[in-house]
Design goal:
It is built from eight helices and eight strands; from the N terminus they run βαβαβαβαβαβαβαβα. It has about 230 residues and is an alpha/beta fold. A four-stranded parallel β-sheet has the order 2-1-3-4, sandwiched between helices. The protein has a four-stranded parallel β-sheet with strand order 6-5-7-8, with helices on both faces.
Length: about 230
């Protein structure tokens, strides 16, 4: 049996992990590696600041050191991609960050990318990361719903706010594809896509799909200079 794809939720919110796990059901099949989601108990409850990102990055590195040998690929399920570069140094297995993969997917599905962030202070962090990836020019807007990660779980009140921000990105910023800028937003993707009638990307789904492709096509992970 193939080793599983390990999806790491770097925050300690079990409800977020459960929502991520449910959103990945369409990617599960009998002829594919299992997809296992884990919560990092020592991570912040929500990753909402640079300090949270730094703490989460340390926790991700420790988890990768402990668990990578028992995984076929790893996904870091936080839109700040905490610890992604370090994880790729720790293991030769393929490692995917959801922001990096989500934005790459958005380029293929539209090109004029709108991003929905959780908080106003998340926007600059996202844009700085997009700039580091060389993708800042593809983002036509990044707007917050001004909710914490914990508050995203209240579907009754959050759905309308997500749709309002999505319409603003589509109608006022001319976005033709939207990326959900938090793994905790996964539950809203399908409803938003139906209402907005443009692609809406759950970046965790995108990253796991990329991991499945890498495994099926037998792509190697990043190797050390000496080939080890």
């Amino acid at each position: 049996m193939s080793l599983p794809i390990l999806v790491i939720n770097p925050n300690s919110n079990e409800e977020v992990t459960a929502a991520i796990d449910r959103a990945l059901d369409p990617l599960r099949s009998n002829d594919a590696p299992p997809i296992n989601c884990i919560t990092l108990k020592d991570g912040p409850f929500g990753i909402e600041s640079e300090r949270d990102v730094d703490v989460a990055a340390f926790c991700v590195g420790a988890a990768v050191e402990e668990k990578a040998n028992n995984a076929s690929a790893l996904v870091i399920a936080c839109y700040s991609d905490p610890g992604l570069r370090a994880a790729r140094e720790i293991t030769p297995k393929p490692v995917f960050g959801i922001a990096e993969t989500g934005l790459a997917t958005a380029i293929m599905l539209g090109g004029r990318i709108g991003v929905i962030s959780i908080l106003e202070k998340s926007v600059d962090r996202h844009l700085n990361y997009a700039r580091a990836l060389g993708l800042e020019g593809r983002i036509v807007g990044d707007l917050p719903v001004n909710l914490t990660v914990a508050e995203l779980a209240n579907e009754a009140s959050v759905t309308s706010r997500m749709l309002d921000v999505g319409r603003q990105l589509r109608n006022e910023h001319n976005a033709n594809v939207i990326v959900l800028g938090c793994a905790g937003m996964a539950r809203y993707r399908q409803r938003m896509e139906e209402e907005l009638e443009i692609p809406v990307i759950d970046p965790t789904q995108a990253a796991v799909a990329a991991a499945l492709s890498a495994i099926r096509l037998d792509y190697p992970g990043r190797r050390h200079v000496n080939g080890a």
